[in-house]
Hints:
- The protein is α/β, with parallel strands linked by helices.
- The protein has two domains: 3-287, Alpha-Beta Barrel (TIM Barrel); 313-358, no CATH class.
- It is built from ten helices and 18 strands.
- It has helices spanning 11-19, 44-55, 73-86, 96-105, 122-131, 144-152, 176-181, 224-230, 244-263, 271-280, and strands at residues 3-7, 24-28, 59-64, 90-93, 110-113, 135-137, 157-164, 198-202, 205-210, 217-219, 234-237, 286-287, 313-318, 324-328, 337-339, 346-348, 353-354, 357-358.
- An eight-stranded parallel β-barrel has the order 1-2-3-4-5-6-7-11, surrounded by six helices.
- Helix 1 (11-19) packs parallel to helix 2 (44-55), helix 6 packs parallel to helix 8 (224-230) and helix 9 runs antiparallel to helix 10 (271-280).
- It is globular, with a radius of gyration of 22 Å.
- It starts with a strand and ends with a strand.
Amino acid sequence: MVELLAPAGDFESLKAAVQNGANAVYFGAENFSARAYATNFSGIELQKAITYAKLRNVKTHLTLNTLIKDEELKESFELAKKAYEYGIDAIIVQDIGLGKLLISAFPDLEIHASTQMSVHNLQGVQELEKLGFKRVVLSRELSLNEITYICQHSKVDIECFIHGALCISYSGQCLFSHMIGGRSGNRGKCAQPCRLPYTLLENKKEIDKGFLLSTRDLCSLELLPEILMAGVKSLKIEGRMKSPTYVATVTRIYRKYLDLIQSGKPYEVEEEDKKQLLQVFNRGQFSIGHLSNHPNQDLICKTKPNNMGLFLGKIEKYTKNRYITVKLKETLKVGDSIALENETGIYTISELMENRKKYNQG
């Protein structure tokens, strides 16, 4: 069975993933996680998270996926040992030294090679297979052809990202954040400098400007049947820094389409599901990342680096008394948040009226 693997940055997100159809969840502990600024789990909370998932037949993966310094090796090992005693199903690592140590100490525990290891070819997968790794999370820079070739020629389970944020750099190879801010992504503290505005110069002349390194988020819903045919065993949703609502929505929708594929019925993605994914989080629509076998000319969104939601419509008129007339393309509801292009503020719909009377949405 193909595994749907969902993120859990805190306990509410963990519950959201489990209750919306995840086969497995991944989360970090108090240290050595590539998402150091997520809430994460420590001590009794780690045990509680593992127990909650296992009682509901959902596997748990602990992310110890940062580079480990010599003086940290003992502490990281002890953390892994504690998780093993609590019943963790797998540990994801970036540091190959820590990985070899855990494989030797816990032969019945699955050790997975993180995407941070930058494994992007068959030779890398085969070397990790020899060392005893049970799964390899491939770099996000691979095409479906490359993923298929690796799956066909290796014995370990292959895991791939199917939805969420992408890096502009090769997975696990970015030093940009550390160079300009002293915070390393390989130590779990990326400051996301790729989401900042830049100006592109040629011979000291400005030729472009904006968020020139900010990648659109990945959405592979349309390619899901092909990803399964490639032989991928685990489908990973990015988002340990995202909200429980995001985790619930994305997990639920991918669960729906995985079940559809396995049912043998015709595969067709509904527009409403695409809208829900866009509404919960998108950076200027979605991208298929590097999954295509051709270069992606639509990878970057230079106009805005954070969530855009859905395009609601255009302002047609603005009066002196600050009334605006908007031609809507989507339905508005009380409680919806809206933003205007080129403005930083966010407005919440508190009341809807029609012909000067309160509009009843019921």
